[in-house]
Write a structure and sequence with these properties.
The complex is a heterodimer of chains A (263) and B (358).
Chain A: E1 3-8, H1 17-26, E2 34-35, E3 52-59, E4 72-79, H2 87-91, E5 97-99, E6 105-107, H3 117-121, E7 128-129, E8 136-137, H4 143-147, H5 153-157, E9 163-167, H6 168-184, E10 191-193, E11 208-212, H7 232-255
Parallel strand pairs in A: 1-11
Antiparallel strand pairs in A: 1-9, 3-4, 5-6, 7-8, 10-11
Chain B: E1 31-32, H1 60-84, H2 90-114, H3 133-153, H4 159-188, H5 193-196, H6 202-221, H7 225-253, H8 257-260, H9 266-286, H10 293-323, H11 325-333, H12 338-342, E2 347-349, E3 353-354
Antiparallel strand pairs in B: 2-3
Helix pairs in contact in B: 1-2, 1-4, 1-6, 1-10, 2-3, 3-4, 4-6, 6-7, 6-10, 7-9, 9-10
Classes of the chains: A alpha+beta (263), B mainly alpha (358).
Chain lengths: 263, 358
């Protein structure tokens, strides 16, 4: 059964318990201690050794329904989207990246040879190659825990149920209900990002989708992401015709040498 | 463990999903990030942080684009010569095969060297995945180098072996065109703004740059007047095509100025402009009538440099482009994301608001 995450950013409190739980459960090495100057976000991005990342957005406008002045916080716990059409998986030349029985996208560390093609195939900047390690890494959606029937570490640790894990079907139902409830309560900004194929045609839907309260760019999410392989057929066609042209030119260049007397 | 895991090996075992990941041997001390220029008011980005990752490829990869491109196209001309005018172009035929063999070995070196785990390079041959241009390319290089190797080494054997070598050279010529062009498909099959936008032009640019590079190699090696004539025709077409596709690509990227910037300024812009100047100069010099061997060699040097600069310019432009979130955002808002492919943009707001107005 397809499993996934529904990250409801409207109730994220930015505690970063997900980041810590992920690092700890997966036993990931540190990736530099930085003071970023970016609000309370010193993690800054998803990376080879960072599989959950909480963003902090300070806005000079109020959220509708709030009356605390011209200011509002947005927090969001970002993660690998486990796309239905995954750029990393489709670009992987070794078969190291696979789709699991839970419909999640998983990098097999014993196969990956660190070619780096998944890194530029991801529309969300999730997967990366770790310099010291030489292989590509990203969220596994706790493949080990799922195999044992457990909830992923981040969802387990989330104190507000901002990160919800479950059957994709159930998550979809809950998410749509949640948007309706928020809209009814006067939070007019609420919408779902990447919930299904109609919502995000370029990825054909995300197994880890989001409820957002502002435009995707604000959360550092692309507004209209597309898996690069959707355009590959056109590229191959262009190459094919150019190759035909080059072959014709090569033949013509050689034919032009026939008959003529060598000087 | 000194890599930040802080797990006492006497108390706990490392068996988590990321436990095999090698970290830094020294824990990086706390330091401040340079935030100058972050958070431009009124501009919707996340503290100016990149939205996608830039490629982890070093200069090995653009160097490979050049070597593989020139080698593949050289073999294609060599194959045509083998088929049509074998006896009068014997030097060109031999040169093409030596270039084919040496070039495929250099190509393989660059590719293996750039891997994060070079000892696992054979995993490329584990599967054939048609969705991945890199997988297709690895197999093209495999068959190309095999057939080019047979074509070259057979020249040392008796007549009947040379016959087999000729057949192998023709096969290698076909794969050679694939080798020259697939790198353009590979580069544009990414999310990097300046690479993904011209996805129909990039393969054409890379292939014609390969043809121009191959002609330049033959110019440097020299040949008899018939061979020179063939190389001149081949190279002139390649250089004209390279210049035209570079112009078209620039125009296609320029529809979003933020994405086009890496082709205009900085190191990548310099390399991109230099490639056009060098290729044009090489083209003009090659067309000087009754030119001496020395003039042809100058044209060969300029053409090679032009072809190299094209690949390095494209590579470094992509690296800069990936670091600029505005390039991605503006392309996708401008209809160059999923909208361009599926005819429908993604939801980016309440009430089914889409990224692109339809």
């Amino acid at each position: 059964m397809p499993k996934g995450f529904f990250t409801d950013t409207s109730i994220c409190i930015g505690c970063k318990a997900c980041e810590v739980a992920c690092k700890q459960w997966n036993q990931l090495p540190e990736d530099g201690f930085f003071f970023s100057g970016m609000s309370y976000d010193n993690t800054m991005q998803l990376d080879a050794s960072t599989w959950r990342h909480v963003s902090f957005i300070e806005r000079p406008v109020a959220l509708s329904g709030q009356d605390a002045g011209a200011f509002s916080w947005l927090m969001s716990s970002d993660v690998c989207k486990h796309c239905q059409r995954a750029g990393c998986l489709e670009n992987c030349p070794t078969g190291a990246i696979i789709r699991t029985e839970f419909d999640t996208v998983y990098v097999q560390p014993d196969i990956c040879n660190g070619c780096g093609y998944c890194v530029v195939g991801c529309p969300f900047g999730v997967i990366n190659r770790r310099e010291e390690d030489g292989r590509a890494w990203k969220c596994t959606l706790c493949y080990d825990r799922l195999t044992d029937g457990m909830t992923p570490a981040c969802a387990k640790a989330c104190p507000t149920a901002s990160i919800q894990f479950g059957e994709l079907e159930d998550l979809h139902r809950d998410a749509h209900a949640r948007v309706e409830r928020l809209q009814a309560a006067g939070v007019k900004e609420a919408y779902l990002y990447g919930v299904d194929k109609d919502n995000q045609p370029g990825t054909e839907g995300l197994n880890a989708f989001f409820l957002l309260l502002d435009q995707p760019e604000v959360y550092n999410l692309p507004p209209d992401p597309v898996v690069p392989t959707k355009k590959a057929a056109e590229s191959w066609r262009a190459m094919f015709y150019t190759a035909l042209g080059a072959a014709a030119v090569a033949m013509a260049a050689v034919i032009a040498t026939r008959g003529e007397r060598a000087r | 463990m000194s890599d930040g895991r802080n797990i006492d090996s006497r108390l706990g075992t490392l068996s988590g999903e990321g436990s095999q990941q090698r970290g830094a041997t020294e824990v990086v001390p706390w330091k401040a990030l340079d935030t100058s220029g972050y958070g431009v008011p009124g501009d919707r980005t996340y503290y100016d942080r990149p939205v996608i990752k830039k490629s982890v490829w070093s200069w090995d990869i653009p160097a490979y684009y050049y070597v593989g491109g020139a080698t593949g196209s050289a073999m294609a001309l060599g194959a045509a010569a083998t088929l049509i005018n074998r006896d009068r172009l014997s030097r060109l035929v031999l040169q093409s095969r030596v270039v084919g063999l040496a070039g495929s070995m250099v190509s393989a070196y660059f590719l293996v060297h750039d891997l994060g785990r070079p000892e696992r390079f054979l995993n490329m041959m584990r599967v054939f995945r048609p969705t991945s241009p890199m997988s297709v390319g690895a197999w093209i290089l495999f068959f190309f180098s095999g057939s080019a190797g047979v074509a070259a080494i057979s020249q040392l054997g008796p007549r009947w072996i040379r016959r087999i070598g000729d057949a192998s050279a023709v096969i290698s010529g076909v794969f050679g065109l694939g080798l020259s062009g697939y790198t353009g498909v590979l580069v544009s099959n990414t999310t990097v703004p300046v690479w993904q936008r011209p996805h129909r032009l990039m393969p054409a640019l890379f292939l014609s740059s390969g043809v121009s590079g191959a002609a330049s190699v033959f110019d440097l090696l020299g040949g008899n007047p018939r061979e020179q004539r063939a190389v001149l025709l081949f190279g002139t077409a390649g250089k004209l095509a390279e210049l035209s596709f570079a112009y078209l690509m620039e125009r296609s990227v320029a529809t979003v100025p933020e994405a086009a910037r890496p082709l205009e300024d900085g190191l990548s812009g310099f390399l991109w402009k230099a490639s056009k100047v060098l290729t044009a100069a090489s083209l003009l010099i090659a067309l000087v009538p009754n030119s001496s061997a020395r003039v042809r060699r100058i044209s060969g040097v300029l053409g090679s440099l032009g072809s190299l600069c094209t690949r390095f310019g494209v590579h470094y432009a992509g690296q800069r482009s990936a670091m600029n979130p505005r390039a991605t955002f503006q392309q996708q808002r401008g209809g160059q994301g999923a909208y361009a492919v599926t005819g429908r943009a993604a939801v980016t707001g309440p009430g089914d608001a889409r990224a692109v107005l339809e």
